[in-house]
Write a structure and sequence with these properties.
The protein contains 8 helices and 10 strands. It has helices at 11-33, 47-54, 81-88, 107-117, 144-148, 173-176, 189-200, 207-212, and strands at residues 3-7, 36-40, 63-67, 69-71, 98-100, 123-126, 156-159, 168-171, 182-186, 219-223. Strand 2, helix 2 (47-54) and strand 3 form a beta-alpha-beta unit.
Length: 225
């Protein structure tokens, strides 16, 4: 599948383009189905996008939001992606959206929640680390292959990244590809140097490659470099 590339020289311009594309997809889903489903990532890169989205006019009460992944920490912990989303996205106009977290301490309940609320997505936003991990699917994790299995029936799993702090809960490749709009969002030349060769040629040792080189969901890469 062809990868759409959206390049901007500065973060502000990229933020606006990505946020407006997300809004367009959510509005289309609401118009068609009466509801929209969105999965977002953590880290610093999405914060400007969250802030932009939170102030925009949308029928937010018809939007369900969950996380691509999270760290197994208390929601009040500074490393919590749930805290990040609540602080920067689920406020102002977007405060009316329904937030459905991932629970490290009850995988069965999280599986059930995802099956009920997110049988598929309208929008999934991924990030990427310098080691080419995405979501919380890390190259060195023992759970890597299970998380990347295209025929997996699991929607989420616990994973130990080995090379980063905290146990994680992550949605699987199979679950995240159930979307009409899949985006990878990165900023900075360092990350672009990692991602650019993977865009040109599959590199199965890197989790992000499995999301790029697939035929299940249309993918767009938003980047500055």
């Amino acid at each position: 599948m062809t990868t759409r590339r959206v390049h901007q020289k500065d973060t502000a311009s990229l933020t606006k383009i990505l946020a407006e594309d997300i809004l367009a997809q959510l509005k289309q889903a609401i118009a068609k189905n009466g509801a929209a489903r969105l999965a977002v990532s953590g880290g610093s890169s999405p914060i400007p996008v969250f802030e932009y989205l939170s102030s925009q006019n949308l029928d937010w009460d018809k939007v369900k939001i969950t996380l691509v992944d999270d760290r197994c920490v208390a929601e009040t912990h500074p490393d919590s992606n749930a805290l990040l989303a609540k602080t920067h996205l689920l406020k102002d106009r977007a405060a009316d959206a329904e937030f459905i977290p991932l629970f490290c301490d009850d995988i069965a309940a999280t599986e059930l929640s995802l099956s009920q609320h997110f049988p598929s997505y309208d929008v999934v936003i991924l990030g990427m680390g310098l080691d080419a991990h995405t979501a919380s699917i890390f190259p060195q994790a023992m759970e890597r292959d299970l998380a990347l299995a295209k025929d997996s029936k699991q929607r989420c799993l616990l994973t130990d990244p080995k090379t980063a702090k905290h146990m994680r809960i992550t949605q699987t490749l199979a679950q995240l590809l159930k979307t009409d709009f899949l985006a990878v969002h990165i900023t900075g030349e360092e990350k672009w140097k990692v991602l650019e060769p993977i865009l040109e040629k599959p590199a199965n040792q890197f989790p992000i490659s499995h999301f790029i080189h697939q035929d299940e969901a249309p993918i767009s890469v938003y980047y500055t470099a």
